[in-house]
Specification:
single chain, 948 residues, alpha/beta, seven-stranded mixed sheet, globular, disordered C terminus
Length: 948
C-alpha cells in the first residue's frame, strides 16, 4: 500500500472489495460498469488536464507557503467585517471537530438534538439582542439577509398595498456598499423600485412598502431611528434595521425602536474573517411574519412521551413543497458558524458580551479624544466603534499605514474611517495615533491611564437585559464549556459515527488535511477588502480553483461568489437573463423545469423574474422528450432557459440529454445544469459535453466541503464563453466579467476560506484520483443496489439497468399495511444510521447515495439494517411494533416496565454489529404538528426557572 497516496485514503473499498462488489453487480470490470452506466456519446475521450496529485505532506508544505503570501496586517476597515477572538475551547471542540462539521441538516430531529439545542441558543441570542421575538437559525451573509427581508416584506404587503401597486423600497445612503449592490440584484427582476436617500429628509409616501436603515451607519454614525420608524408605520411602511450585533450589547435595540425586521452578521461573535466567509447572518422579525420568514426556524415541541424535544419548524424547506410559489429559494444556512457564534455567547454570557462591547467603544473614545488633541476633525457625533476622520492626504496616510502593516478604510482623498475591534489594544491605539501624526506632520503622544468611558447619548443606550437564560450563565469555565459541547455532540449522528447515505447530498469524507488550513492565521485572518497585494495567496488559490473547475466542467469561466447551491442557481439564471438582455431579447422569461427537479430550481427561477413551465417526467423517470419539445416550440419566442439536473434527480444518466439541450438551443434558450449530482460526472463527462451553457457546483457535496450541520455551502457557477462577461461583480473588490451583473453575495469571493477545502481536495486527488472517485461512487451505488433490489423495489435505472451514484428505493407498497417511509427512517436510527433522503423526489421513497468514501463493510452494515427492517415489515400486524415505536431511547430500554410485544434486544440490538458502537437517540419520535401549533423558537425566559 502506498502510504503517501491520498486517493487510497479517500476511497473506501480496497482492491479485494472492488472485485467482490463487481461480482455482486454482475460485471467483470469497472470499465464495463461505467460503459453500462454512462451513455458513450457524452463520455470524455481524454483525461482531465490537471497536475499530478500531491501527497498529504507535499500539500501541507504547499498550502503553508501559499498562505505566507497573504500579509497579516491589522485591519480597521470595518464595513461589516472585523477581526475577532475565537475562544480556543470552541475552536478545538466545534470548529475542528468532525462530529460537528460533518453532520447533516437536522431534518431527522431525533438524531440532531445537540445541534438543534445549539441553534436554539443562537436564536435566543438574536431575539434578545435585537429585541424582536422571532429569529431563524441563520442566513448566508448580511447583504443577502437584507435582500431576503426586502422580499419578505414585499410578499407580505397588505391587500391595499398590492392593489395600489406599492413597490418602492427606501434604501438609506448609509447602507453598506455590498448590501446596496445585492439589493439592486434582487429587486430588479421582481419589479421592486429602489429609492436612495438620507433618512433625515426623505419624503415617504404610500408608494413605498418598506425601508432599510444601517445601525450604526456605514461610516460609523449612530442614529435613533425611533421617530422615523413610527412615521413610516403611520402610512403602513415596514422597516428593516441592519444592525451590528455586538453594538446591541450597549445600544438601544431595533425592536425598541419599533423595527419590523433586524438583519446583520454574527461574524463578530468569534468567527474568523476568512477573506469574507463563511459567516452566519442573522434575521429577526415580529410574529406577524412567522409564516414568511426565510430559511430555518428551530422550534420546541414534544416527543412521543410528551418530553421536550427540538425540531425545525414551520415552512422549513418550503421551496420543496411550494416550488414556484415559494417566497425564498434558501436551502442552506450557515449552521456551523451559527453554532460557533451561539457558543461564543454561551461562553462569555451577557456580561462578557457587554464587557467586550464596552472595551471596543471605550478604545474608540480614547482614539476620538486623541484626534481632538491632534487637531484632526472627527465627523461622527455619536458612534460605537467607527470614527470618520478628515485627513490632509489619504494617499500619503495609506502609504505610511501600510508600511506599518495597518489598514484603514479610505473613503476619498481626505476622508477615512477607522473601526475598532475586539482584538484592538491600547498599544494598537497608540500605533494608530502615531501613524496619523506622521501623516499630518504632527507630534505623536502616548495615551495615559484612560478609563473605560461611554459617549453614547442616553436616548441610544441599551437599558434592557439580554441573555438572561441559564444557559448563558452556567458555562463560563473552560471545563464546563468543554463538557457542555461534548454533551450536545453525543446527541447527534455525524460521519464520525456512520455513513450518511443521503441521496443528492453526497456526504463524503472531509479529510483532515483539507481542513487544517482553515485554522491557520495566514488564511483565516484576512479581511475581504484588503488590497490585492495583501491577499496574494488567496488570489492565487482562488484563481487556480477557478481554473480547476473550468477544466472539470468543460467551461470557460467560473465565479466563486455564490455562497450556497441555491445562490448558484439564482446566479446562473441571472447571468442567462443578462445575456438575453444584452441581445435585446429581455422578453425571454420562460424557464422550462422538469417535474422531478429540486424544489429550489423553480423558486430560483421566479426570483430571477422568470415564469416557470413544468415539463412532464416519463414512467421511467426521464424527461418526457416530446412534452419538452412541444413546450419549447410553443414558447420559442420567449424561451429563456431549461433547468436540468444531470444525472437526473432519479439517479439516471438520461441517454437523450444531448437531444434535450439541442431542442432548447434551437428554440433560443440557454441550458442551466443543476450540479447537485456532479459527483457522478467528474472525469467521465461534464456539463459542456452534454450541451449545457452554465452550471452551479455544490462544493459542499462533490468537492468535499463539510455540510457542517446544514452549512456552510458554496455554489460557484461555471459558464461557457458567451456568458463569461456577465459573471457577478462586487462594489469594492473587482470581480466578474466586462458586463458583470451586480453582486450575488456580500463578499467578493463568497465563502472564500472554505474554498481552500475544495482546492485541497483537487490538488491531492489529481486528474486520476478525481476520476477514480467518480467511478467508485458509481460502484458503491450499484453494489448497494444489487443487495437491496432482492428485497425492495428500486424505482429507476438507466437503459442497461444501472444506477448513477444514487438510487430511489420504493416503500409505497407497504402503506397498505400501515407502514410509512417515515417509520423506516426512524427505525434506521436504532441501527446507528442517519436516514437517506426521505420522500424526495418521489413521495414514499428513500433516495440513497453511499459515496465513494465508504468501504464494503460499512455499505454491508447499512444494507443489513434495511434488510432486517424488511423482515420487520413482513412481520408487522398492528401498531405495537419496533417500526412504529422507533427510535428507541435508552430511557425506554432501561425502564422497569416493558409494555411491548417485542423484546428489548429486538428494539435496540436487532443485529450484532449494533452493540459494537451503539448510538442512543435522546428523544423519541417528535410531534411535528404540536411544534407548529405552539411555536417557541428561543430558550424559555428566566422566569420559568424561578420557583414560585
Amino acid at each position: 500500500m502506498r502510504t503517501d497516496s491520498f486517493v487510497l485514503r479517500h476511497l473506501g473499498p480496497s482492491r479485494n472489495e472492488v472485485t467482490e462488489m463487481l461480482d455482486s453487480i454482475g460485471v467483470s470490470s469497472l470499465d464495463e460498469l461505467i460503459y453500462n452506466t454512462i451513455p458513450d456519446d457524452i463520455r470524455l475521450k481524454k483525461n482531465l488536464n490537471l497536475p499530478e496529485a500531491m501527497s498529504e505532506n507535499e500539500f501541507a508544505s504547499h498550502i503553508q507557503k501559499l498562505g505566507n503570501l497573504n500579509k497579516q496586517f491589522k485591519s480597521y476597515i470595518g464595513l461589516g467585517y472585523h477581526p475577532t477572538t475565537l475562544p480556543a475551547v470552541i475552536q478545538r471542540n466545534i470548529f475542528e471537530n468532525p462530529s460537528w462539521y460533518t453532520s447533516y441538516t437536522p431534518y431527522q430531529a431525533e438524531i440532531s438534538q445537540g445541534r438543534l439545542e445549539a441553534l436554539l441558543n443562537y436564536q435566543t441570542v438574536i431575539t434578545d439582542l435585537t429585541g424582536l421575538p422571532l429569529a431563524n437559525s441563520s442566513l448566508l451573509d448580511e447583504g443577502t439577509a437584507a435582500a431576503e427581508a426586502m422580499i419578505m416584506l414585499y410578499n407580505g404587503r397588505s391587500r391595499g398595498q398590492k392593489k395600489n401597486g406599492s413597490n418602492k423600497f427606501f434604501v438609506s445612503e448609509e447602507i453598506l456598499p455590498q448590501t446596496k449592490d445585492i439589493l439592486m440584484t434582487r429587486a430588479e427582476p421582481l419589479g421592486i423600485e429602489l429609492v436612495y436617500g438620507d433618512h433625515r429628509n426623505i419624503e415617504l409616501s404610500e408608494d413605498f412598502y418598506a425601508c432599510i436603515l444601517q445601525y450604526p451607519s456605514r461610516d460609523g454614525m449612530i442614529f435613533d431611528y425611533t421617530e422615523f420608524i413610527e412615521k413610516a408605520h403611520q402610512i403602513e411602511i415596514r422597516s428593516i434595521v441592519a444592525a451590528d450585533i455586538l453594538s446591541l450589547a450597549i445600544l438601544k435595540s431595533p425592536g425598541e425602536m419599533g423595527a419590523d425586521v433586524a438583519v446583520g452578521t454574527t461574524q463578530r461573535f468569534g468567527i474568523p474573517l476568512g477573506f469574507g466567509g463563511p459567516h452566519a447572518a442573522y434575521f429577526a422579525t415580529t410574529e406577524d411574519f412567522k409564516r414568511l420568514v426565510p430559511g430555518r426556524i428551530i422550534g420546541v415541541t414534544v416527543d412521543a412521551d410528551g418530553n421536550r424535544a427540538l425540531r425545525m419548524a414551520l415552512q422549513t424547506r418550503e421551496q420543496h413543497i411550494k416550488r414556484e410559489r415559494a417566497t425564498s429559494n434558501i436551502c442552506t444556512a450557515q449552521v456551523l458558524l451559527a453554532v460557533m457564534a451561539g457558543m461564543y455567547a454561551v461562553y462569555h454570557g451577557g456580561e462578557g458580551i457587554k464587557y467586550i462591547a464596552r472595551q471596543i467603544h471605550s478604545l474608540a473614545n480614547i482614539l476620538d479624544q486623541a484626534l481632538l488633541k491632534l487637531g484632526l476633525e472627527q465627523d461622527n457625533k455619536a458612534f460605537f466603534d467607527t470614527l470618520k476622520i478628515k485627513v490632509s492626504n489619504a494617499d500619503k496616510l495609506k502609504d505610511l499605514a501600510e508600511e506599518q502593516e495597518v489598514n484603514f478604510n479610505y473613503l476619498d482623498e481626505t476622508t477615512i474611517t477607522i473601526s475598532i475591534n475586539e482584538t484592538t489594544t491600547d498599544a494598537d491605539i497608540e500605533q494608530i495615533i502615531d501613524i496619523l501624526a506622521q501623516a499630518e506632520n504632527l507630534y505623536s503622544f502616548k495615551i495615559k491611564d484612560c478609563p473605560v468611558s461611554l459617549s453614547i447619548p442616553d436616548s441610544l443606550k441599551r437599558k434592557s437585559n439580554f441573555l438572561t437564560h441559564e444557559v448563558f450563565h452556567k458555562y463560563h469555565s473552560e471545563t464546563e464549556m468543554m463538557r457542555y459541547i461534548k454533551r450536545l455532540e453525543r446527541k447527534d449522528i455525524s460521519l464520525a459515527d456512520s455513513m450518511i447515505s443521503l441521496g443528492s447530498c453526497t456526504m463524503k469524507l472531509n479529510a483532515a488535511t483539507e481542513m487544517l488550513p482553515l485554522s491557520m492565521s495566514n488564511w483565516n485572518s484576512i479581511h475581504p477588502f484588503v488590497p490585492v497585494n495583501q491577499a496574494k495567496g488567496y488570489h492565487l488559490m482562488l484563481k487556480e480553483l477557478e481554473s480547476q473547475l473550468n477544466e472539470i466542467t468543460g467551461f470557460t469561466a467560473t465565479s466563486l461568489q455564490p455562497n450556497s447551491g441555491a445562490q448558484g442557481e439564482y446566479a446562473g439564471l441571472m447571468v442567462i437573463r443578462a445575456f438575453h438582455n444584452s441581445n435585446k431579447e429581455g422578453h425571454r422569461n420562460i424557464c422550462l423545469i422538469p417535474a422531478s427537479a429540486h424544489g429550489t430550481n423553480p423558486a430560483s427561477a421566479v426570483m430571477a423574474g422568470m415564469k416557470v413551465v413544468v415539463t412532464k417526467t416519463s414512467d421511467s423517470g426521464n424527461i418526457d422528450l416530446e412534452d419538452l419539445r412541444e413546450k419549447a416550440i410553443l414558447h420559442r419566442d420567449n424561451l429563456a432557459a431549461l433547468m436540468v439536473t444531470y444525472p437526473s434527480t432519479h439517479g439516471v444518466f438520461e441517454s437523450e440529454i444531448r437531444e434535450i439541450t439541442r431542442i432548447i438551443h434551437e428554440n433560443g434558450g440557454q441550458v442551466y445544469m443543476d450540479g447537485a449530482n456532479m459527483n457522478a460526472q467528474v472525469g467521465l463527462t461534464n456539463p459542456a459535453k452534454i450541451g449545457a451553457d452554465v452550471c452551479h457546483l455544490n462544493l459542499h457535496k462533490t468537492f468535499a466541503i463539510p455540510h457542517g450541520g446544514g452549512g456552510p455551502g458554496v455554489g460557484p457557477i461555471c459558464v461557457a464563453e458567451h456568458l463569461a462577461e456577465f459573471l457577478p461583480s462586487n462594489p469594492i473588490v473587482k470581480t466578474g466579467g466586462t458586463k458583470a451583473i451586480s453582486a450575488i453575495s456580500a463578499a467578493p469571493f463568497g465563502s472564500a476560506m472554505v474554498d481552500l477545502i475544495s482546492y485541497s481536495y483537487i490538488k491531492m486527488l489529481g486528474a486520476r484520483g478525481l476520476t477514480e472517485s467518480t467511478v467508485t461512487a458509481i460502484l458503491n451505488a450499484n453494489y448497494l443496489k444489487s443487495r437491496l433490489e432482492k428485497h425492495y423495489k428500486i424505482l429507476y435505472a438507466g437503459e442497461k439497468g444501472f444506477a448513477a451514484h444514487e438510487m430511489i428505493v420504493d416503500f409505497r407498497e407497504f402503506k397498505a399495511k400501515g407502514i410509512e417511509v417515515t417509520d423506516i427512517a426512524k427505525r434506521l436510527m436504532d441501527f446507528g444510521f442517519h436516514a437517506p433522503t426521505v420522500s424526495f423526489p418521489v413521495a414514499g421513497t428513500l433516495m440513497i447515495e453511499p459515496t465513494e468514501s465508504e468501504n464494503k463493510q460499512e455499505i454491508d452494515r447499512f444494507a443489513d439494517a434495511l434488510i432486517q427492517i424488511k423482515k420487520e415489515i413482513d412481520e408487522y400486524h398492528d401498531g405495537d411494533s419496533v417500526l412504529k415505536n422507533a427510535p428507541h431511547t435508552q430511557s425506554m430500554l432501561t425502564a422497569d416496565e416493558w409494555p411491548y410485544d417485542y423484546s428489548r434486544k429486538e428494539a435496540a440490538f436487532a443485529l450484532d454489529f449494533v452493540s459494537q458502537n451503539k448510538y442512543w437517540p435522546t428523544v423519541r419520535r417528535v410531534n411535528e404538528a404540536y411544534g407548529d401549533r405552539h411555536l417557541v423558537c428561543s430558550c424559555n425566559p428566566i422566569e420559568d426557572y424561578i420557583e414560585q
